[in-house]
Amino acid sequence: MKTQVAIIGAGPSGLLLGQLLHRAGIDTLILERQTPEYVLGRIRAGVLEQGTVDLLREAGVSARMDREGLVHEGVELLVAGRRQRLDLKALTGGKTVMVYGQTEVTRDLMQAREQSGAPIVYGASNVQPHGLKDERPYVTYEKDGQLHRVECDYIAGCDGFHGVSRQSIPQGVLKQYERVYPFGWLGLLADTPPVNHELIYAHHDRGFVLCSQRSTTRSRYYLQVPLDERVENWPDARFWDELRARLPEDVAARLVTGPALEKSIAPLRSLVVEPMQYGHLFLVGDAAHIVPPTGAKGLNLAASDVNYLYRILVKVYGEGRTDLLERYSPLALRRVWKGERFSWFMTQLLHDFGEHKDAWDQKMQEADREYFLSSDAGLVNIAENYVGLPYEEV
Question: Who contacts 160 (Cβ-Cβ below 8 Å, separation ≥6)?
């Protein structure tokens, strides 16, 4: 089998890259280890930057998002008893964010892939890239007991942190930067109306809380918990009681509770590997970087990687601009590090670090809260990062 671009991973980044390249007349094959049902069962973030929304529209998969997604012009921060609304639209010259679940983005992309007739293989085991620095790389995989070989020009590793793509790069090539945080987020998804029409990020002495949403009838809430906490220790009633305790009384009074559709604990960490390219292999999304969810940047940084790789490959095939291939990693990493900085900043600003912060760090945290929520420049800083920094031209 031959294709121009082999894409490993059928999460949103792999599917979006495949959709954009297909519309540009570039052949792709997507290989996914899991089943479609498993892929759709992953519960992830749902706040899309302006740039991600525009890219989904360019890919021709925005009809349901534009119909059902919720455009948010603001977000609320609650710190030290102070409630500050950020008017995103006013502070950024008209930019907004879209609340539309990653599961729904994936569903739309999967449907588009099926309708296009472009090939995708689910249940592909033992996927392995080969010849990454050769003129003709290839990928092997097993399906139904048979070994298959796919010859290609380029390989896009969109298979996440634990995927084979990054692990296929020889040891010593990549440099890894990492920060592990001493807490996690306990998340609960419920078919209940959101407690607020806009997202609420709140710091409390008992720990951080996020009031998010997937629609006008489905809510997503998060509580900061110790890193060694277990989901089994949090029956629904305890979760709702703790959420009320961390919210202002007027907000807590509006809270509608219900049975959890899903409940899980996610540890928080920041991680980046450099470079994001090795020969004909390009790392995309979680395969190259992970962010704490505090800044809503995970899916959005993956989309910006897709944006750069897509536009480079279009010029490679359309104009013969193979010189642009070397620009992928620097372009992507500049935006990745800015997204990492913002996620780190929001995590530092809003969480309780307890014994993991000394007296100096605590005072710096208090000073940051006072400055950024009391200064017009500080509010603009948060807002422009939250809606998403612009993409560079390729």
Answer: 9, 11, 285, 286, 287
One-letter identity of residue 211 = C
pLDDT in tens, 311-326: 999 999 999 999 999 9
Which whole-number Å values give the CA distances from 52 to 94, 114, 322, in the listed order? 16, 22, 26
C-alpha distance from residue 178 to each of 121, 265, 272, 290, 362 (Å): 33, 20, 7, 9, 22
- In angstroms, the CA 35 to CA 219 distance is 26
Residue 85 lies in a domain: no
d(CA 321, CA 312) in angstroms, rounded, equals 8
- pLDDT band for position 43 (50/70/90)? low
CA–CA separation, 394 vs 382, rounded Å?
26
CA 10 from chain centre, in angstroms, equals 14
Please state the length of the chain. 394
Say if 196 falls within a structural domain.
Answer: no
Q: Which residues of 177-188 are buried (b: 16+ CB within 10 A; e: fewer)?
A: eeeebebbbbbb
Residues acting as catalytic residues: 72, 201, 293, 297, 386
pTM of the model: 0.94
Structural domain including 65 reads 5-72+97-177+269-354
Q: Is residue 369 part of a domain?
A: no
Task: Quickly list H helices, 62-129.
Answer: 63-68, 88-91, 102-116
Is position 360 within any domain?
A: no
Distances, alpha carbon 228 to alpha carbons 5, 231, 267, 305, in Å: 42, 10, 9, 33
Query: Domains in the chain: how many in total?
Result: 1
d(CA 58, CA 50): 12
Residue with token string 């082999």 = 6
Q: Is 43 left (phi over 0), alpha (psi -120 to 50) or beta?
A: beta
Residue 65 maps to which CATH number? 3.50.50.60
Long-range contacts formed by 323-328: CB under 8 A, 24+ apart: 324/394, 325/277, 326/277, 327/394, 328/276, 328/277, 328/282
Give the model confidence (pLDDT) of 183-202 as tens digits. 999 999 999 999 999 999 99
Alpha carbon distance 55, 105 (integer Å): 12
- The residues with which 211 forms a beta bridge, in sequence order, are 200, 221
CA 224 to CA 222: how far, in whole Å? 7
- The DSSP bridge partners found for residue 2 are 151
